[in-house]
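hey m, so remember when u said the tokens were messed up on ur end? i reran from scratch. heres the input so u can diff it against urs
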Amino acid sequence: MEILCEIMHIRRSSYYAWKKKQPGKHAMEDELIKRMMQPIFNQSRRTYGGRRLQASLKKAGINASRRRLSRLMKAEGMVPKQVEKWHPQTTQANEVHEKAPNLLDQDFSAERPNQKWVVDITYIPTKEGWLYLAVILDLFSRAVVGWSMKPRMTTALVMEAWKMACAWRQPPEQLLHHSDLGSQYTSKAYLDLLREKNCQISMSGKGNCYDNACAESFFSTLKGECADSVFESRAIAKTNIFEYIGIWYNRERLHSTLGYLSPLEFEIREASVQ
């Protein structure tokens, strides 16, 4: 190297000073990780923290400690948005047409897909007024298997979500269907649909805020990650929520309770080992 410096008329001190400035292996790895982190973080709607980023990078073949990721996130100004955790609230039942026993009894575990479904309704604020969202969750994987959105909270809203879920999942007889005591779920028209499939019909106790905790928790996640502000219109809200549920939540979003897999990834993995 000394001979080369003489040929190029470069001082050896200048060469070694330049060499010290070149990034080492660790620094180059940091740059690679940062380039991989940013699109994952943005895709998560800036909600992923160290654990989910670590799991996402691992799926891409990159192993990095949470301490390292924390340092790089801080350097890049990547501060996860805080999603408010679900807090139980007591709600009053609407007009109850028919009441069923609480067969679920807060047992939110399931051994297989299409064994237990929980359903609920929430409202999404838009500048045109409320948009009501009805969902059906499979307790095995927490996948949203059916959903519907309408400007009014009617029986038709929940019936559409049910029909979507049945078309996609083809549930077997004796599926346990759990709802609250809302008039949409206790209506004769809706219960007739459940009885056509020979479902086990389960309903929450009056005023018991924990009986449908999984559905409420999903709504808390959705509102924190997707519907955390007032939409300009119902049409825009529908598009965003459809993309969130159908593309992001079911297929991509990592769940800590599922071993940092998405709901559909979890179902595929479990099916492959049976």
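this time it looks ok to me. The first helix runs from residue 2 to 7. if urs says something different then somethings off w ur setup not the seq
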